[in-house]
Amino acid sequence: MKGVDKMLYGGIEAGGTKFVCGIGNEQLQVIERKSFPTTTPEETMKQVFDFFDKYKGNIASIGVGAFGPIDIQIESRTYGYITNTPKLAWQNYHFVGALENALSVPIYWTTDVNAACYGEYMAGYGKGKNSVLYYTVGTGVGGGAVVDGKIVTGFSHPEMGHMLLQRHNEDQFEGICPFHHDCLEGLASGPAIEKRFGRKAQTISFDHPYWAIEADYLAQCVYNTTLLYAPEVIILGGGVMKQLQLLELIRQAFKEKMGSYVDTPTLEEYLLTPMLADDAGLIGCLALAIKKLEQ
Predict the structure, then answer these.
(1) How large is the angle between the packed helices 190-197 and 210-229, nearest 10 degrees?
(2) Which segment of 34-43, 46-55, 62-71, 173-182 scores lowest on mean pLDDT?
(3) Which candidate among 149, 186, 210, 280 keeps its CA 20 to 30 Å from the CA of 110?
């Protein structure tokens, strides 16, 4: 890019609860970052524009990982839009158009979980591997896949968090998803746990019997994913996975469900929490900003 003395890249992890904006370099080092609550497009995007404004002329491109659903089909008339999200203020918001108008740089546009998956693929536990699956288990549940360096998409982005599950025989909770009830997000997300108990997941003791139920649901997710994709690694992130006892419970439940049917890598190398922790999404956005210029 002519006139740029120092090439920088932008990243926007646009979550349903908060936005994280960052500036980084080609080595995916974060130079500056800022986070703020997700409110209305007018309020939130003003903070986005203000953050990047001082870097104008030095930003080569920006990668965006957004809450959804979003339109990722470039040929579509609503490409770059957040579409029928439950966050009413953001429905049919032209996110990419707003960025392009304000900042005049190329934009890589994908989901927040795809960005996190790509971050782990480039700089985390997926580095050097050909296939990586990433799930975030938090306010919602979402999944993304990278195979041979490409984010897996079809007519739209995957909605892995809404796979249907077999209900645990000790769980009478009806589920919170208005579309499916017994889907992964409806039964195992942070809000589902909170509705069961009337309090946040992080306040529930690590030895509470509920965690065996949560592990069962997430093990079903991993089981289904293994049979569908046979990835080299599956990474489980998000706020719910910060329960440190949960990963080993999932590994045990997955082993029981799979039996000896499929030989996976050792579970200590196959089922992991993110190496990049809470930075997976932002680093993924920076990496996708770089990728945008290679397209």
Answers:
(1) 160
(2) 173-182
(3) 186
Q: How far is CA 213 from the centre of its chain?
A: 23
Adjacency order of strands within the sheet including 8-14: 30-37, 18-24, 8-14, 59-66, 107-111
Neighbours of 159 (CB within 10 A): 16
Tokens representing residue 45 in the block: 């995007």
pLDDT of residue 229 exceeding 50: yes
Residue with the two structure tokens 């469900």:
257
* Rounded distance between C-alpha atoms, residue 239 and residue 15, angstroms: 13
- Name the burial class of residue 33, with classes exposed (0-12), middle (13-18) and buried (19+) by CB atoms within 10 angstroms of its CB: middle
Cα dist from 84 to 71, 81, 91, 152, 199, whole Å: 10, 10, 5, 21, 28
Residue 259 phi/psi, 5° resolution?
Answer: 60, -135
Q: What is the pLDDT of residue 86?
A: 82
Question: Taken in order 276, 277, 281, 283, is the CA torsion positive or negative?
Answer: negative
Angstrom CA distances, 67 to 16, 151, 262, 295, stand at 6, 16, 33, 23
Distance (Å, whole) CA 91 – CA 83: 5
At residue 47, what is the residue type? Q
